[in-house]
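Q: Predict the bound structure with pyridoxal-5'-phosphate.
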Amino acid sequence: MNMQSPSPEASDPGAEHSRIPRLEALRSEALSPTALRPGVVRLPSPVEELDDERFARHGVRVLLKRDDLISPVLPGNKWRKLKYNLVDATASGKSTILTFGGAFSNHVRATAAAGALFGFTTIGVIRGEEHLPLNWSLSAAVAHGMRLTYLDRSTYRRKHEPDVLADLRARFGDFFPLPEGGSNPAGVRGCAEILAEIPDEVESPFDIVACGCGSGGTLAGMAANLRPGQRAIGFSALKGGRFLQDVVDGLQRATFGHATDNWHVECDFHFGGFARRPPDLQRFIDDFAGRHGIALEPVYVAKMMYGLLELTRRGTITPGSTVLAIITGPDEHPRAASYPVRA
Ligand SMILES: Cc1ncc(COP(=O)(O)O)c(C=O)c1O
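A: Predicted complex:
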């Protein structure tokens, strides 16, 4: 059972066929040998059934797509979004990748790791002032060889304008620009592949796919690869996440030439704002770790999982539904090591 009736586009077999061959073609695209270096990533990521009476008592089945297990250094949607960007950077002949993010950005850290693995120089342009000593996340980026620079918040908002980029080029030379969160068409194409792995692994089809939502690429890609009747929900990690509706729409148009209307953004589970972790969210994380041995990544994944439980309790996700929850990353904070995480 779905949350809302299927969109006209999602139930139109013609629309389905116009999407899937394109994605099939993407999957068979030749990747550069370095991007396919064995042992870097483990794909397809496993799908596990969540045995949790809080969902079961409402007749809702939950499957976890464990993208957090793809790689220790390029986990979750990081690999999905970096994959085709690394291919594009290689094809463009650029040896430097420059990207943007906040001081605790998972994406900045992963880009640094990808640079170290695949031989790119990496520059991280960080929002706000420098704070020393560096936090654990930026320290990890620097340990992977990333150079950091900082833009005050008003300049950061203009980061894609020509004068700001020209200034960065003057300082760092030519580079392959990667947007915040890795959400550009190449990133969206990589995220579309998450669901392409599903048919081989899951016997019964799912009704709803869910992910955390920050820069929108993960939701945009997955929604473009749904079957008729399936829907996607992105749980905004940010307060005031309504704007993400336009962001995701724009990413789909830029990537596939059209937007689908089989998805929406849930804006009520931000827990006070981006990266906020109030005690009720922390209790939920601790309880989940105790029940399932999984340390939920707190910025996106825990909020999604909490939101799914709440929508199930409210009956918005109806009995009989199967939900595929994408575990888009592990909790990489050093403190997470104290959780009883399963291998
Ligand atoms: C662990 C994790 N989950 C989900 C997201 C949200 O993905 P997106 O930025 O594509 O909306 C991010 C950010 O990239 C993330 O780091």
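A: The longest helix spans residues 13-28.
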